[in-house]
Amino acid sequence: MDPKPQDHQSPSSTPSELRQVLVLRPPPVFAVHEQDFSSKFHILKAYDSPLPTHDFLQAHAQSVKAVLCSGIGPITAEVIHNLPALELVVTASTGVNHIDMAECRRRGITVTNTGDVFSDDVADAAVGLLIDVMRRITSGDRFVRSGRWATSGEYTLGSKLACKRVGIVGLGNIGSRVATRLKAMGCLVSYTSRQEKHTTPFTFYPNILQLAFNSDALVICCALTNETRHIINNKVMMALGKKGIIVNIARGAIINEVELVKCLVEGEIGGAGLDVFENEPNVPKELFELDNVVLLPHRTAFTQESFYNAAQILIGNLEAFFTNKPLLTLVANEF
Amino acid sequence: MEAMGVLMTYPMSSYLEQQLQNRFTLFRLWNLPNKTHFFNHNAHNIQAVVGSTHIGADPELIDSLPALEIVSSFSVGLDKVDLAYCKEKGIRVTNTPDVLTDDVADTAIGLILATLRRICEDDRFVRSGLWKKDEFKLSVKFSGKKVGILGLGRIGTAIAKRAESFNCSISYHSRSEKPESKYKYYPSVIKLASNCDILVVACALTEQTRHIINREVIDALGPKGVLVNIGRGAHVDERELVSALVEGRLAGAGLDVFEHEPQVPEELFGLDNVVVLPHVASSTVETEMAMADLVVGNLEAHFLKKPLLTPVV
């Protein structure tokens, strides 16, 4: 069924009941700023219903035109089939892996994301993780809090950042921000990505293995795709070497986690800063024994400021949709 | 040069100790069964003191070494060396500037990020095994914040350059305004604290800067403010800082230094919004070696009657 043009309704006279927005599972941004959404739109909460999702959609969502989602509530082909009036998917994230884009394309459904509103914070955290692992900040904090500074005084030296070669995997919105910050700290920055970016001053390596051979640290900033799944494997880690550091703020599955743990435990690489894991919230217990790893619970995007900014973009896109204005952060559908 | 006697005041670096041992007759001021006996037997053979941030060269030590010619400090800060007394006695003094600037500036940025972004707290959370998918806390963004730097010397300037890459706006206070600087100058610490989100202490410790971060400055920084100290513990009125943190009058602190190292106020261990380090801002393999080489280089230059590499007095 082709989508019909939006009926013209002046914003001030549109009752919020007509501005229905379906939410299958509440995205964290929505949970924090729910009031701002509820005051402008009629939120249909599938997660509050005792009905299974399929039944809920059949019973209550047949005229829904807009759905607000994130990775915790995927918009699959089946969901889309149960929403015959759907015209817009608004995701509270940058990535769209959890949305069946092919099906959206087929149905003429538009998708918006949060643009690069999280990029600064994710990049900042990536830099924070690299400094932390190399300069042993969390390790040092642990050392002081345990009382060992006062008693033994023995402490392991860290590793200087200036003049170290840092390879960035994926030089997009996040990777490019990581690059400028590390450059200011005197790191020698290079990168690999699908295509060389001739406008940047950084050295390009055509594949991950060459990048690893020529780096002291790798910072993973790319999207998870079929090509990048497990791209960081034993061979890459051996190329990085025994003093090599890996920072991952992207997706756990970009690294072969079993091989990563083995390399860390056996000292084949020097350390790791990880915000993401293959099977969150499960983290390999072996990592808890290690002093040269820093472990975060997938929160690098979670700041007060980015959540506020993201909420504004989500609300802005929904407002634009319901008032027939141009959407703010349309995702190009490559299918 | 093996005849030259060098007294190392503290086991600050095993690499340095080895280098000194290889070149000079090395005396160690720690683990002495009888200090008086040691000085009676050896003082007249000691021409140089290698001091650190823990134990430098105070008048008592200087007076007990009648043959002392040079104090070479394994640090850039000289608050533990009585410079005036050395000058009076014709004793040369050297330090280790520049080689540690990058590391100390990186530590400041690392402390800012660890504190604002709750890195240490979250690591503790994950290691506790309590991470469930749906819970989350929000941290505070660093990019774009207002950073106030106390002391715009080599280290302060390096911190500013790094913070700029995070799109922070930079302001500073120092003994005098620097006309060539592009950053905003505030004529007092209080004004600086009132106008920034993150206050970084990066100045030298002198009589004037002792407890420069006091109750008034902490109040001016405010309940959303964060203090980072990579200077000296004595820059901060530690009791006031601890009260402010415990009572929530300051949002957080990243501290590499304390008034009575290695003692750290235990109240801080109960706080998640504080990051504490064991005075390691220059403690990397590379910088320890560079600092040690500079200490040895200064001593060799002195004994060979060549110009000192990094003289202060």
Give the CATH H-level superfamily of the largest domain in chain B. Answer: NAD(P)-binding Rossmann-like Domain
Number of strands of chain A: 12
Give the tally of β-strands of chain B. 12
- The sequence of SSEs of chain B as H and E is EHEHEHEHEHHEHEEHEHEHEEH
Structural class of chain A, please?
A: alpha/beta
Largest interface: A-B, 55 and 54 residues
Task: Walk me through this protein's architecture.
Chain A is of the alpha/beta class and 335 residues long. Chain A has 2 domains: 15-117 and 304-322, Rossmann fold, CATH 3.40.50; 119-295, Rossmann fold. Chain A has 13 helices and 12 strands. In chain A, helix 12 (257-265) links the parallel strand 10 (245-248) and strand 11. In chain A, helix 6 packs across helix 9 (173-184). The model of chain A is unreliable at 1-13 (pLDDT under 50). In chain B, helix 1 (14-23) runs parallel beside helix 11 (285-303) and helix 5 (101-116) packs across helix 7. Chain B is globular and about 65 Å long. Chain B has helices at 14-23, 35-42, 59-63, 83-89, 101-116, 119-127, 154-164, 189-194, 215-221, 238-246, 285-303, and strands spanning 5-8, 25-28, 48-51, 70-73, 92-94, 146-150, 169-173, 184-185, 198-201, 226-229, 252-255, 274-276. Chain B starts with a strand and ends in a 10-residue tail after the last helix. Chain B is built from 11 helices and 12 strands. Chain B has a 7-stranded parallel sheet with strand order 8-7-6-9-10-11-12. Chain B has a 5-stranded parallel sheet with strand order 2-1-3-4-5, with helices on both faces. The model of chain B has no long low-confidence stretch (mean pLDDT 97). Chain B folds into 2 domains: 5-97 and 285-303, 3-Layer(aba) Sandwich (Rossmann fold); 101-276, Rossmann fold (3-Layer(aba) Sandwich), CATH 3.40.50.720. By secondary structure, chain B is of the alpha/beta class. The chains are: A alpha/beta (335), B alpha/beta (313). At the A-B interface, helix 6, helix 7, helix 9 and helix 13 of A face helix 5, helix 6, helix 7 and helix 11 of B.
